[in-house]
Amino acid sequence: METQQQLDDFQARIDAGEKIEPKDWMPERYRQQLTRMGSQHAHSEIVGMLPEGNWIGRAPSLKRKLVLLAKVQDEAGHGLYLYSAIETLGESRANMIDQYLYGSAKYSSIFNYPTLSYADVCVIGWLVDGAAIVNQTKLAHCSYGPYARANLRICKEESFHKKQGYEMVAKMAEGIPAQRKMVQDAVNRFWWPTLMMFGPHDSDSPNSEELIKWQIKLNTNDELRQHFVDRVVMEAGAIGLTLPDHDLKFNEETGHWEMGEMPWDEFWNVVKGNGVMNRERMKARRNAHENGAWVREAAQAYARKKKLSREKAS
Ligand code: 3HC
Prior knowledge:
Blueprint: H1 4-15, H2 28-47, H3 49-53, H4 62-87, H5 93-101, H6 118-139, H7 145-173, H8 177-196, H9 208-213, H10 221-238, E1 249-251, E2 256-258, H11 264-274, H12 278-291, H13 293-313
Antiparallel strand pairs: 1-2
Helix pairs in contact: 2-4, 4-7, 6-7, 6-8, 6-10
The chain binds 3-hydroxybutanoyl-coenzyme A.
């Protein structure tokens, strides 16, 4: 049973800005929240490889193919950093993976949208990685040491992805009319799903209050979404692209861009597993997991054999 004194001492550490490390005492709920949020973050990175991976074989040039290959590889690495960070809380990687492949654990809704043209790959780099970097630069300062350090490492690559994506979008926006049309269509399809990445409105966010109290989240969903929109409206304008929100308007008083109403029915529908690509993404990930079982078994057998021969030698 956790005593009030333990809880108060823990909160005092959080309020003093101290990092909590794996061997430190922590409330069970803190552990659970981090395991939930961090494992779902990791799942998102792994599933996030699929939409862009769809265009590796069809990139318009060898250079663009190499760029895309490297980016998709980076996302795999982000997933592994995050699984490693969350394993320090006691949850096994196998369990975490089972929970999203065969259980009810979530991954980011954004990856349940199809990539219909190569311009989608460019827009994902600019908007999706751009949204992820807004979120992850905050997580890099969260109270749990291993998760903060994993995000710090991810941010270095993510900000490169975002800049690279924006450069690719700008090139298409300055291209021939067919390229301009293609990239504007991609922005129109990805704008609202990107804003959904920041989660529901604060009033509909059951986890935020606890996460903010424990400085796992440093800002609310709406604050981060607003920060993202304020930046992207300028970036879109700079390259002559429009955003599909007719209610978007600048508020001189607050200095922020006010958005139209989000399509929340669509958001919850996708979160509940009814998005256009949910089934396809899960089928692809389950196939990869099941077809790769022999590799995991061989690696584990090899590790056991090495351990046995070390024990015999000692
Ligand atoms: N997609 C799927 N589920 C979502 C969601 C989304 N966009 N937004 C919220 N949800 C779920 C939450 O997981 C929660 O369900 P749960 O309790 O069963 O887990 C429920 O909706 C209520 O939402 P809350 O706001 O209460 O949940 P959180 O406080 O956890 O906030 C979050 C949601 C902002 C996504 C937060 O979990 C977070 O910051 N997570 C870490 C970052 C992350 O996961 N990013 C995902 C993208 S990774 C990425 O983009 C990779 C890049 O390389 C492209």
